[in-house]
Design a protein that fits this description.
single chain, about 280 residues, seven-stranded antiparallel beta sheet, Jelly Rolls, four-stranded antiparallel beta sheet, alpha+beta
Length: about 280
């Protein structure tokens, strides 16, 4: 007999505050990322993980064999803005707990959603090359952060996210898109400048937050199961749109910001405020 799901308790968990310590906030601001344990319960991850997984496999259009894909395509299946596709996915993406954590870590009054994306690294999926996310975003302020939520425990063989500690403070390599070149060039630059690497497994319920300019990568998935991850990108609710500096930012300006005029703030309908003090 199947256990009944107490949906009310799941929604309460997603809405209730998570007390982040002053030490964790200080660590994030110094190092550009932080990993936090037991942020979400196994029950929440199982329930919403099933919904997200169904959406990923229904909406995915990348069906080329692995050996025919680019490095980027081998890294993961990438499905974006699930909140617009499904009401229950929206419940997860709009979690006040996760959004408040983003606001607290950045030290801002509130946060908007930039967009969400599921990142599923298939068995035999390749590396995710070194990169910084904000290369892609036409956003003026560095007050941006991504929460990376594994939907299962993520041992080393699945390719957990790895971070170059403190790399958000340097301007090297900020003009590199995610590619074989970014992996090679940034690997060398980050080693030369002695940035410590945090490359450790994730327990079930553990999540990470990383700043938009923090360099990060992930290893290949050499396990026989997909590495299922959900992410949300948050920005300061008072973020301002800047002139796009590359073709990717032009595309992002159109897709995620509805071509709102440069110099203005994002609009509530497509970039809703998810938490505010």
């Amino acid at each position: 007999m199947e256990a009944t799901i107490d949906k009310t308790s799941l929604l309460q968990e997603l809405a209730s505050p998570y007390a982040v310590s002053p030490e964790a906030i200080a660590f994030y601001r110094q190092n550009g990322y932080v990993k936090l344990k037991q942020v979400l319960s196994p029950a929440v991850l199982a329930y919403y993980g099933d919904i997200i997984t169904e959406l990923v496999f229904r909406l995915n259009t990348l069906d080329k064999p692995m050996h025919e894909r680019t490095t980027y395509e081998r890294a993961f299946l990438q499905i974006m803005n699930l909140w617009q596709e499904d009401e229950e996915a929206r419940e997860f993406v709009f979690s006040k707990r996760l959004a408040q954590l983003a606001a607290d870590l950045m030290g801002v009054e509130g946060v908007r959603l930039y967009h969400d994306q599921a990142l599923y690294k298939e068995p035999s999926g390749g590396i995710t090359p070194w990169h910084a996310d904000q290369f892609y975003w036409p956003l003026a302020s560095p007050h941006t952060v991504t929460v990376w939520i594994p939907l299962q425990a993520t041992p080393m063989e699945m390719g957990p996210l790895a971070f170059a500690e403190g790399s958000q403070h340097v301007e090297i390599g900020r003009d590199l898109e995610i590619s074989d070149e970014s992996e090679t060039v940034l690997s060398g630059l980050l080693q030369q400048q002695n940035f410590p690497l945090n490359d450790t497994p994730f327990e079930l319920g553990e999540v990470s937050y990383h700043a938009g300019w923090t360099f990060h990568r992930a290893g290949p998935n050499v396990s026989d199961s997909p590495r299922k991850v959900m992410t949300m990108i948050y920005m300061d609710k008072n973020q301002v749109i800047m002139p796009p500096r590359n073709r990717y930012q032009v595309a992002d300006h159109a897709r995620w910001l509805a071509n709102v005029p440069v110099g203005s703030q994002p609009q509530d309908d497509i970039n809703p405020v998810l938490f505010s003090y």
